[in-house]
Amino acid sequence: MIKTRKATRREILGWSMFDFANQAYTLLIVTVVFGDVYTRLVVGDAPDYRLGNLLWSAALCLSYALVVVAAPLLGAAMDGGRAKKRMLFASYVLTVASTALLYFVGPGHVWLGFILIVVSNAAYSAGESFIASFLPFLGEADELGRISGLGWALGYAGGLVSAGFVLVFLGEVAADNFGRIRWVGPFAAAFFLLAAIPTFLWVREPAVGDRRHFNGELVRIAYRRVATTLRTLPDHPDLRRLFMSILFAMAGVYVIVAFSFIYGAQVIGWSEDTRALMFVVVQITALIGALAFGALQSRLGGRLTYALTLVLWIGAILAIYFVGELTALLNRALALSLREEQVFLFAGLLSGLSLGSSQSVGRALVGMFSPETRAAELFGYWGLTSKLAAIFGIFGVGMLQWAFGLQGAVLFCIVLFAAALLPLAGIDEARGVEAARRASRLDD
After folding, report:
1. Mean pLDDT over residues 78-103, rounded?
2. Which residues touch 164 (CB under 8 Å, ≥6 apart)?
């Protein structure tokens, strides 16, 4: 377990446990189970599910839009009012409650499911930014890659545990199994509720700002802090370029998170056994990717490591799109009789490595370039950037699949990851870290 000059092993573990806990939501609700439930069983516009896919995209995009509007202001309030743990706790409670209520979304309850996804995903997404704002207080700049990697790795371990339970006890997404699979919401809520307790017991409130009640004065302080940050952004050119890269990269990531298992069901037509195996493949490879690239970041630096994760993503998307051609090629060349769903697992392996590594390294870079005195606010901008990316990516693919089908729409992700590589050319890591330290000294 990591120990740094700023935090104990127990505090770093407590911080990482929030990633372990909240992965149950993003995996079971957004990526794998409830998205499939909503599109195929709740909306159920077979055979191509285009309306279900579009409504699913719209619900996610609306939830992300709420975060885009609120995240920087909430982050500034957290910094100015010494309220990081209080805001994190509020997002946690709202996520747990609204996720548990998904039990009541049955076939035909289209708008109830829509509203609960908007609320739960907005609260969950805000919590992502809130927990990330603690990162600069856990270690020095050269230590943040390993700490962020540990958090993401534990997150995928949490996903593996929670997904394993669902596969064994709740079964497949099918109309005749709806009485059992509808428990996915309460289970994800309970997992998050219990597994995040160490976070609130062991992680300290950073000594930034003056503790204040949530009132009009705190709102005014938050607005002033946001205005100051916007005026001083030209002093952080590397952070601005990083946010631009994250905008495009996370657009592609959110598309894969939201549609990969829907793609497997609708385009590949995989069996329940392959779906279950994909659970395991993605979680294990994402865990490995987060740890491996977190360690690699200490050797190669964050910028180069992040660029490598984006190249890996492009390879993963090509494998997803050309899975039919790849299957035929392997069968001819090696005299095999592989099915597309089996080769699709290889695309899942690449996607898992890319998923764990790109998000971990990107978060660590934001932590390196963020002044401690404005960590929550700048991670609010990280959340804003990520959620703008989600809106752009998911809604774009939602419209493209409406016009061309889901398989053709996935090629859009290659454009997104290629665009994310371009701003990295102008980033100077040492300059970005020094700018963050200088801003912290000025704020003090």
Report:
1. 90
2. 279, 280
